[in-house]
User: Fold this.
Amino acid sequence: MSTFTRFGGTERYLTNESLEAAVNAALALERPLLVRGEPGTGKTLLAEAVAETLSTRLIAWNVKSTTRAQDGLYVYDTVQRLYDSRFGDGDIRDIRHYIKLGPLGTAVGAPERVVLLIDEIDKADLEFPNDLLHELDRMRFTILETGDEIVAKQRPVVIITSNNEKELPDAFLRRCVFHFIDFPDRDFMRRVVGVHHPDLDDALVEQTLQAFFQLRTTRGLRKRPSTSELIDWIAVLKKAGVAEVKLDRALPFLGTLLKKEQDVALYADQLAGGKKYRS
Amino acid sequence: MFIEFLYELRKNKVPVGMQEAVALARALSIGLHDSSLEGFYFLARSILIHRESHLDPFDVAFAAHFRGVHADAKTIADELLSWLKDPAERPKLTDEERALLESLDLEELQRRFDQRLMEQRERHDGGNRWIGTGGTSPFGRGGVNPRGLRVGDFSGGRSAVKTADARAYQGYRSDVVLDVRQIELALRRLRAFAREGSDRELDLEETIDRTAKNAGELEIVTRPPRRPNTRVILMMDVGGSMDPYADMMSQLFTAAKRSTHWKELRIYYFHNCVYGQVYPTERFHDPVRVTDLVAECGRHYKLVMVGDALMAAWELLGAPTLAASEDAASGVAWLLYLREHYDRAVWLNPEPPRAWPGSTIETIASIFPMYELTLDGLSDAVGELVLGSRR
Assistant:
């Protein structure tokens, strides 16, 4: 039986029981934590919060559509070596100079326990998660060009986020502890706003929340505003010195909440259909 | 102790296995659940399930196993009855729907309700039989009955079983809802790439190889870029018995249209069954002869048929009198003709599989690999199109 630091959120990052249970399970079982949920619910921030709790450093790997699993381990910079061989800089005989560890490689090779964030894993190709299976399981890999084996001294804490753009393979899912971040309800959102804007007037908080949740329930929105948009919006309101938000008028700085042209048009239509503007 | 719970989950189609069981046992031995049922609920949920579509079946299984939601069956039944007795509270229904609702005798409805509750207790098979998830059940939220009866909706309180009872994740069940984006994602797997066109991309590996062979003298090698190479023909049944599924069809249509990773997408419409001609528009203008279509689109096209495949036997087996004489053949002959021509073809059916046996659907399912038009069915169908498991 081992003891470990329990995760309970940080000052800036609020959690609930289910999220804490998932994080602690992942820490105790030494398995990757897979976090899914709507964009803007703080999936990426979770990794920062965990790193802060464990007081260790965070290594972020932002996955793109072109990212390959191999890139995460190491890259053998052949072009640089070729260049050096032609123009005579550097020691071209030692391949090690041209091996650059990727984020996963760095995390495995780190002397201390670090937090590795694999952000938006679903952006990459369908095969990507499968290619990572072995390395995530064993936390060791071999650099083929030199024959060096890199073995983790302390298994890194791996946090993986996904926006659900692609289904992840079952074999991969089975190895992960899973958590789905719910969209916060009103009370939780009030606390979140309180953390980010502690000095905000209570009445304004209520008004913004009211406007925000009403906007979210608007039917047919393509991209519903999320937590991060609300936080930004309040920041803008504060900067501009807006002291009151009225629901039956056009919301100020709507652009921070709605990011798509169609959504803004839809909102305008609805507003015009309201009783205030009916002639 | 919790082994039975795992079997309960498996009954609810949540695939848990050894790996999950061992992990959960380990977590429990460390004491991660804080010796509380609520802690156990969150812990088990994070370890045992791996996708949000399983959240709801998990809640169902948890509630059934750790208390049995049936304790509240009486309240639910009362609630249901009072709702039915009070027409003012009914949501806006069309005349047709109201007629349908009124055609159900109250007593009969209650009897069926009770009976289904009994079944649920015995079988726990989740899915669309459970009162509350609806589908085609007359009891439930969401489904054929608009708005539905908000059965099993508890408020307040946060004990684990209550949390499970609340079933907040119903919307994420993959066997119930289809939305455009989810369809798009399912369809995305159909993509395939091929290198075609002019040499516009630097082939780094090859450049290095050649340069090395060339004693370090740089030699650039280029290659054509990767391009999507999937061609799809989508044939949709419209009108008549397909009208109730119009929404679902338009979602599928939108998703297919939006998919940019196909080289070509052809959409045709037919009514009931394919007889010699299909139509590029929903209004059945400008017919295209199937023989011409087959001549134009080779066997490498992937054929996706969408329809309820439900018709009178003569519509399938007899030849329509309206068709041009040279194309006069029975519907089933035309379907066979299409199936023979294309290497990969599937039929998507919005009717639930339990309605398939003993109708024309069964006949057509023997020609085309048939899948239900749900997210699960769609991904199976896409798998069939990619791999071609049968035939």
Q: What stands out?
A: The interface with chain B takes residues 1-2, 17-18, 20-22, 24-26, 28-29, 31, 34, 36, 78-79, 82, 85-86, 126, 164-168, 170, 173-180, 182 of chain A (CB under 8 Å). The longest strand of chain A covers residues 157-162.
